Amino acid sequence: MNSSSSSFSSTVATATSSILSTPPVILSPCAACKILRRRCVEKCVLAPYFPPTEPLKFTIAHRVFGASNIIKMLQELPEEQRADAVNSMVYEANARIRDPVYGCAGAICQLQKQISELQAEFAKAHAEIMNLKCQNSNLLALVCMEVSENSSSSSLLSSDHINDYGNNTSMFLEDNSVYAAWEPLWT
Ligand SMILES: [Zn+2]
Known about the structure:
Elements: H1 2-21, H2 31-36, H3 55-65, H4 67-76, H5 79-98, H6 104-153, H7 155-166, H8 170-186
Helix pairs in contact: 3-4, 3-5, 4-5
Bound molecules: zinc ion (ZN).
Protein name: LOB domain-containing protein 11
Organism: Capsicum annuum (Capsicum pepper)
GO cellular component, one term: nucleus
């Protein structure tokens, strides 16, 4: 079992390495180096995440965090987490520019307020439903009581009706006609 799983992971590894062997297209100079007016070196840590096609991404993150802090944070992270970290920093910087006092905490508070308002609305609607269900079952009980009172007075009549159907001979006649229709097939 161990060998099969390791061979599986090795095939996955070779597959991914073959994909990764074609280097990702990194346009040079990157947006960060262009804005910082410095030479974009081959192994620029910012280049994969700040392409020159999206200069605003770096401008916003740089304004709030500062280029040196962004570089420091990226260098401290493993490569597979860097793209997420950049997205998070850009999001936080955007929120901070929109709301200089609370930043993204302001958005979180707003959403929490919305949640509690909706929860209160939901509780109210739920109480209304329970109330209506209660009314409905009360009405149903009333209707049932009235029906049983009415049917007990006319129960004799309805049982006669059922006996009438049971003794009806026309059903047997119909059955015979059906057999007659089938007969030619069997001779
Ligand atoms: Zn660069």
